[in-house]
Write a structure and sequence with these properties.
The chain is α+β, with helices and mostly antiparallel strands. The chain has nine helices and 18 strands. The strands form four sheets. A seven-stranded antiparallel sheet has the order 5-6-7-2-1-9-8. A seven-stranded antiparallel sheet has the order 11-12-13-17-16-15-14. Strands 3-4 form a two-stranded antiparallel ribbon.
C-alpha cells in the first residue's frame, strides 16, 4: 500500500509539471513605465519626422503684381543648388510678363519644361544636376503676406520664425519689374516632399486654415468641414458607404484662369475624353453667385464613375471656383444640396 501511495505522488507531480504556467500581470504607473515619453502623434507625422534630413538650400523668387503674386521656387541639396546658381540667376534675369499678365522666360541650356497642373503654372527641370532639380512656377492672388510666406519656407527648412524687423531679402531686377529673393539653407527631409522633390507641386505649402473670413455660407446637414489652405477657402465633405463627394471654394488670380481651359481640365480629371473642348464648353449655363455673374457646367456622364459640377465667378482680380466633385452617384445625390448651398453663399469684406 505504501508503494502505491508513493507511485501516486510521483504521477501527480508529473501531471503538475505539464500544466501551463500561470500568467501574472502587474499594473505599473505610467510615470514609472516610460510610456509617457512615446510620441502619440499620428503615424504619418512620426514617419515623416523619422526620415533623414540633409542640408538643403531653398531659393524662391517672389514677384508681386497688381493682378497676382508669382512664385519661382527651387530647392535641393546645397551643393546641387549652388552648382546651378549661375543658370537660375540667368533665368531670373530673362523673366518678363506678356500682355496676358503671364510670365515668359528664356529656357536655359540643359533645362526642360515638365508638367503643369491646376495648382502649378509650369515646371522646369534642371537636368544638368545629379539628382535633377525642379523649379516650380505658381501664382496666388495679389497682396500676399510676405512675412507669413517667409516663415512658412523657413519652417520647411527647420529654421526658427523671424519677426518683421528681421526680414531681409535681396531684390533682383528683370525686364519690366523686380522680384524679392528668399534664399536660405537649413535641413529638410529626404522623404516625399523633401528636397529631392525639387520645388514641389504648386504654390507654397501651407497648413490647414479655418474657413476664410472673406466668405460666408450656411452649413449643410450631413456635410463636414475638410482641410483648407490659402487657395482652398472652404471644403465640405460627405461620405455614404464607399461613395464620397466634396464641395470646394477656391480663389485664384483671374488673369491666368480661363473658363474653357478649366472645363477641359476638369473633364480630363474625371475621364471625359470623347468630347472635344469646344463641345464641352457649349454645355455652359449662366447663373449668379451672390449677385455676380457666373458660369456653370455639369460634367456627368453615364460611362464615367466620377463627376463634377463647377462654377466660376470673377470678382475683382480673383476668379472664384465652386465645385462639387466625387463619385457620380454621390454628386448626383448632392446636387440639390450644392445648389441650395450656393444660394446662401456671400462674399464678405472682412480680411
Amino acid at each position: 500500500m505504501k508503494r502505491l501511495f508513493v507511485l501516486l505522488l510521483v504521477l501527480l507531480a508529473a501531471i503538475g509539471c505539464n500544466q501551463p504556467e500561470e500568467i501574472v500581470t502587474h499594473r505599473i504607473p505610467k510615470s514609472r513605465s516610460n510610456l509617457d515619453k512615446f510620441d502619440r502623434r499620428p503615424m504619418s507625422s512620426a514617419r515623416r519626422d523619422a526620415a533623414p534630413t540633409v542640408p538643403t538650400r531653398m531659393v524662391v523668387g517672389l514677384v508681386e503684381r497688381s493682378d497676382a503674386t508669382w512664385f519661382f521656387k527651387i530647392q535641393g541639396p546645397v551643393d546641387q543648388v549652388n552648382l546651378a546658381e549661375p543658370v537660375w540667376r540667368e533665368f531670373f534675369g530673362s523673366l518678363r510678363f506678356n500682355d496676358d499678365a503671364q510670365p515668359e522666360w528664356d529656357l536655359p541650356t540643359g533645362w526642360s519644361e515638365g508638367r503643369s497642373s491646376s495648382m502649378r503654372f509650369a515646371t522646369l527641370n534642371l537636368t544638368s544636376t545629379t539628382p535633377p532639380l525642379e523649379m516650380s512656377i505658381s501664382s496666388l492672388g495679389p497682396n500676399q503676406n510676405l512675412l507669413d510666406n517667409v516663415n512658412r519656407w523657413r519652417g520647411q527648412l527647420a529654421l526658427d520664425e523671424i519677426k518683421k524687423d528681421q526680414l531681409k531679402l535681396v531684390e533682383i531686377d528683370f525686364d519690366g519689374g523686380s522680384m524679392v529673393l528668399f534664399d536660405e539653407v537649413g535641413l529638410a527631409s529626404t522623404a516625399a516632399g523633401g528636397p529631392m522633390m525639387g520645388a514641389m507641386g504648386g504654390p507654397p505649402d501651407v497648413p490647414d486654415q479655418p474657413i476664410a473670413a472673406s466668405i460666408k455660407f450656411e452649413s449643410i446637414e450631413g456635410w463636414v468641414a475638410g482641410p483648407t489652405s490659402s487657395i482652398v477657402k472652404a471644403r465640405l465633405l460627405k461620405t455614404e458607404g464607399d461613395k464620397k463627394a466634396q464641395i470646394t471654394i477656391v480663389e485664384m488670380p483671374a488673369a491666368v484662369n480661363k473658363w474653357g481651359e478649366n472645363v477641359m481640365r476638369w473633364a480630363g480629371e474625371i475621364g471625359i475624353t470623347k468630347q472635344s473642348g469646344p463641345d464641352l464648353v457649349l454645355r455652359t449655363s449662366k447663373v449668379k453667385v451672390d449677385g455676380i455673374d457666373a458660369q456653370r457646367i455639369r460634367l456627368i456622364e453615364d460611362e464615367n464613375e466620377q463627376a463634377t459640377i463647377a462654377l466660376m465667378a470673377v470678382r475683382g482680380q480673383s476668379a472664384w471656383f465652386f465645385k462639387l466633385t466625387g463619385n457620380k452617384s454621390a454628386v448626383e445625390a448632392g446636387e440639390p444640396e450644392f445648389d441650395k448651398f450656393l444660394t446662401t453663399f456671400k462674399f464678405s469684406d472682412e480680411n
